[in-house]
């Protein structure tokens, strides 16, 4: 076990104690004074041997109150340090989804509700909700179904086993805002009862088979929400 020799002379107590080990350690003089076991004024300097595991390691050019050494890491590696693997993957997926949402929202607003890519030609709207916990304003692009002059959206989350955040938001705050083409209006979001939900979802799955695949991927009953203009 490595040992460190500490000089408890009066000069060293004033300026702090330097510990000589294969690594660089520092500790403030009050801690040293406690360990000196009654060093009297004018007494001869003496040395106390301490085991390295009794000291806190502080990296080079770092003071004691700065905490453990930090290194410059990439964004992904920082996430790995801060979260478990599952949480890391969730955060990375959320980041990718947010980036995608921003691009779709910008394209939607600059082309009167029309977007390209995988959603080219699909009926799209922007749903504004209020965060269930944070109270922050959120915007999510999504496909909708206009059936018999009723407007519906689907909390599919691509067949994931959990409901999307926007669905939790509108359960807590059903007053929402909708952007549809160049129109913008307030609405009341109302989840459908099971029988009506099944009827409407079947129509959507017939028109867009991907929604049928989403339901097959999960045991969760994907909610259907009607947006009633207020």
Descriptive overview:
The chain is of the alpha+beta class. It contains seven helices and ten strands. It has helices at residues 10-15, 29-35, 75-82, 85-110, 165-172, 194-207, 209-217; strands spanning 3-7, 17-20, 24-27, 47-51, 124-130, 137-147, 150-154, 175-180, 183-191, 224-229. Strand 2 and strand 3 form a beta hairpin. The longest helix has 26 residues, at 85-110. The N and C termini lie far apart (75 Å). Mean pLDDT is 75; it is low at 4-41, 43-73 and 86-90.
Rounded average pLDDT:
75
Overall number of strands: 10
Q: Could you name the CATH homologous superfamily of the largest domain?
A: Electron Transport, Fmn-binding Protein, Chain A
The parts where pLDDT drops under 50 for at least 5 residues are: 4-41, 43-73, 86-90
Biggest sheet layout: 6 strands, antiparallel, barrel
Q: How far apart lie the N and C ends?
A: 75 Å
Global geometry:
globular
CATH architecture assignment of the largest domain: Roll
* CATH fold topology of the largest domain: Pnp Oxidase, Chain A
Number of domains: 2
The oligomeric status of these chains comes to single chain
The Rg value, from CA coordinates, equals 31 Å
What's the helical proportion of residues? Answer: 25-40%
């Amino acid at each position: 076990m490595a040992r460190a020799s500490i000089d408890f002379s009066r000069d060293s107590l004033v300026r702090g104690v330097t510990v000589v080990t294969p690594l660089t350690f520092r500790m403030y003089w009050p801690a040293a004074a406690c360990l000196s076991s009654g060093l009297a004024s004018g007494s001869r300097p003496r040395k106390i041997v301490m085991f390295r595991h009794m000291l806190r390691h502080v990296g080079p050019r770092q003071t004691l109150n700065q905490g453990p050494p930090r290194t410059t890491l990439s964004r992904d590696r920082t996430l790995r340090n801060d979260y478990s693997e599952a949480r890391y993957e969730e955060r990375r997926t959320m980041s990718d989804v947010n980036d995608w949402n921003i691009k779709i929202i910008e394209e939607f607003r600059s082309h009167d509700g029309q977007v390209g890519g995988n959603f080219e030609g699909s009926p799209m709207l922007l749903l504004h909700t209020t965060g269930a916990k944070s109270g922050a304003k959120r915007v999510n692009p999504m496909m909708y179904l206009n059936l018999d002059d009723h407007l519906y959206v689907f909390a599919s989350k691509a067949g994931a086993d959990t409901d999307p955040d926007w669905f939790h938001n509108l359960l807590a705050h059903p007053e929402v805002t909708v952007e549809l083409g160049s129109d913008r209006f307030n609405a009341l979001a109302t989840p459908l009862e099971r029988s009506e939900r099944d009827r409407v979802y079947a129509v959507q799955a017939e028109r867009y088979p991907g929604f049928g695949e989403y339901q097959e991927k999960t045991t969760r009953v994907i909610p259907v929400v009607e947006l009633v203009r207020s």
